[in-house]
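Dear V.,

Thank you for sending over the compound details. I've combined the ligand you provided, coenzyme A, with the protein sequence from our construct and run the structure prediction for the complex. I'm sharing the raw inputs here so there's no ambiguity about protonation or stereochemistry in the SMILES, which I know was a concern on your side last time.
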Amino acid sequence: MPTSVHLNPLQDVSAAEALAWHQVVAASTAHDLPGSPTPDPGQIHAQLTKPALGSRRLTWLATGADGVPVGVAGLRLFTSAGQEHLAELELHVDPAHRRLGTGSRLLSAVVAACRAEGRRSLIVAAAADSPGEAFSERSGFRRALTLDHLMLRFDEMDAAGLRRIADAEHPGYRLTGWTGTVPDDLADAFAAAKNAMNDMPVGDLDYGNVAWDADRVRAMGKVVADRGDTLLTIAAVHDDGTMAGYTEILLPRGAAPRAQQYDTAVVPGHRGHGLGLWVKAAMVRRLRAEHAGVVEIETDNADDNVHMLAVNHQLGFRSYRRTREFQLDVPAA
Ligand SMILES: CC(C)(COP(=O)(O)OP(=O)(O)OC[C@H]1O[C@@H](n2cnc3c(N)ncnc32)[C@H](O)[C@@H]1OP(=O)(O)O)[C@@H](O)C(=O)NCCC(=O)NCCS
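Below is the predicted structure of the protein with coenzyme A bound, written out as structure tokens.
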């Protein structure tokens, strides 16, 4: 490790610091995941200053002697009941400055912070067969889950087939949808459906469970809106008022061509009726009608989540890369 590298914990991240962060992440992503979009400096500033729901953040910037940014580490500390043991790491070193110990030094600062914050589990994602995977394995993390990343490209999909799926009747159910925060009359039903995500396969990750209620779903809507992103939801509601399933898409701020899949869930008592396929096909139809600039949707699924993968393949999603989730059982001091 060159002694000239300094680790700077950041407090209230400034626009200039967000720009430095962006520089490192953009170079790192271009090296390891060529073609993957990097959030722009404004998006990164929003992410660093407005933590996701149920979490707070610690951040570090590593700089060289001349003040040049060479590495970044972000630690998400989960704060909701059921997840207070957990922290998630984002770590990048500029490719021109790798194999010099900067990543290890940032990780040491992160592990010390986990200990100080009473976190027993630290998770991190790295592209399969990448330097990040080698680094994680060498640094004491164990492999806990493999994620398949899939893309649906609108210009390659079977548009007529998808329309047929979206238009199909499902007696006893109707589709509804909204933008941003859930309408008040659906908030309780939506929270109940969100709890269905708790049985999503998470491999050996010590992820914990979060209980959703109406306040929490409203808070989630606000966090996304404050970041400047747009959340679209389509839900299938049963005649008895139960929300049987739903799917969420995130449109990053600005006119990004790639939409991100968030949750898709069907509650256990309503599985096996094609509702997951239905809500997702209806979402594609909505995106095409209302957001002409969006050309593709990216999603990821645990590689053993056979039902969700089958739904996605039927819609025309194609696997294009894999990520591994690693977990470190934080060692005592
Ligand atoms: C992972 C990453 C942060 C490592 O940063 P770094 O500054 O190069 O890490 P270090 O110099 O501290 O490496 C420590 C050890 O990890 C292992 N390692 C790191 N990169 C490796 C590679 N490309 N191949 C094999 N082993 C590697 C080595 O054992 C290395 O020690 P050595 O150089 O003495 O052999 C960097 O490669 C990166 O930014 N990757 C992309 C982002 C990412 O995947 N982040 C998540 C990973 S936790």
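A first observation: Residues 150-322 form a domain with the Aminopeptidase fold (CATH 3.40.630.30).

Warm regards,
I. M.
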